[in-house]
């Protein structure tokens, strides 16, 4: 019996940040989401992540239809990045709002407003905002990536690992980028020239 390799003091692992993924052969490999931080990394080192659009999501409101905007999260680094998209208003349904984007990959997040909420949302209501919370992950050994189909955990295992990770994070561990929300109401009337 050998002892487990020690983790350098410059790397910290989030407590309770792990989940099991079921492999095709019935084995239970462990999927661990570990933070890539240093003890003296305050302020945090910048992440190589691009958000598109970078500052504002635009929604066009049409009567009796849902409105949608898409936020692209592009990871330009060589590390996995965990992210979560949060809103300050209940009118939004955020699809794939908590995810891990692999190195040199882009994740698309759909943000939807249902028709009933569109009907009550006015152009003057500009207080809505989203916050994209991001943290770099340290790859387990042997290296695996969530973007590789052969080594990725199942969707359920990844969701479980993400659910375990986020409560362990404090604001000083996160990169938080605000994104504003703006709307315009589509009008079918023809305006004179």
Task: Give a description of the structure.
This protein is mainly beta and about 190 residues long. It has a single domain, classed as Immunoglobulin-like, CATH 2.60.40.10. About 10% of the residues lie in helices and about 40% in strands. The radius of gyration is 20 Å and the shape is elongated.
Please supply descriptive tags for the structure shown above.
Immunoglobulin-like; 9% helix; 193 residues; 38% strand; 2 helices; 4-stranded antiparallel sheet; mainly beta; disordered N terminus; elongated; 6-stranded mixed sheet
Would you spell out the secondary-structure blueprint of this structure?
Elements: E1 18-20, E2 30-32, E3 34-35, E4 49-52, E5 56-61, E6 67-75, E7 80-87, E8 92-95, E9 98-101, E10 105-113, H1 115-120, E11 129-138, H2 155-165, E12 175-185
Parallel strand pairs: 5-12
Antiparallel strand pairs: 1-2, 3-11, 4-6, 6-10, 7-9, 7-11, 8-10, 11-12
